[in-house]
Amino acid sequence: MAEMNNDAPRGRHDNKNARCSKKSTRVDMTPMVDLGFLLITFFMLTTTLAQPKTMQLLMPRSDGDSMSLPAQKALTVILGPQGRVAWYEGIGDDITAPPQVNYTSFANHNGIRDVIIRKKEAVYQHTQKNDLMVLIKAVKQARYENVVDIMDEMLINQVDRYAIVDISEREEGYFK
Question: What is the per-residue pLDDT across 7-19, written as a single tens digit (0 to 9) for each?
Fold first, then answer.
């Protein structure tokens, strides 16, 4: 541990030329090195054990083979600024018959979760399968937190088919 080496003369009378006796000190750093290695090992183990958790996101194939989606199986959700959410049933690609746009939020009562549940039940009654497809679109002012919230809603409501798609200029106008 800590050592004190006393090689200098002990008193005043032993050496007349020495004014003050100097003692040399030597500190054994072995325990400190051991502690350092223990800390390094601890932090290396804790960082490898605490890996960040990510959400699985399936992206469409890039071979250009697009599947046709019936409008009665689709629900389009548009994330807007300040946590606002617009939604309509169908794909909304028919310019001659624009969709009826409704507005909601992420509230627990009458929020987007209730909309997804109602649409999922309607699709199940029509097809006898869980074939609901949710198209998620976001304006540029939408917060990243809202995108994560809508992905969580897909997991909570067990919606197996959903996609994040580009928003059109017409749909961006829903929040102006």
Answer: 555 555 555 555 6
| pLDDT (tens digit per residue) in 17-76 | 556 666 777 888 888 999 999 999 998 888 877 667 776 766 666 665 555 667 788 999
Angle, helices 144-156 vs 112-127, to 10°: value is 40
- At 15 the pLDDT is 57
**Paired residues of 136 in beta bridges:** 77, 164
Give the separation between CA 111 and CA 76, rounded to whole angstroms.
15
At residue 3, φ and ψ (nearest 5 deg) are -120, 150
The tokens of 43 are what? 């932090």
Amino acid at 158: Q
110 by DSSP, 3-state: which? coil
Q: Does pTM surpass 0.90? A: no
Number of Cβ within a 10 Å radius of residue 172: 16
CATH of the domain at 156: 3.30.420.270
Q: Is position 58 within any domain?
A: no
Domain match, 100 and 15 both: no
Q: Which domain holds residue 151?
A: 71-175
What the block records as the tokens of 154 is 């897909």
CB 171 within 8 A of CB 92: yes
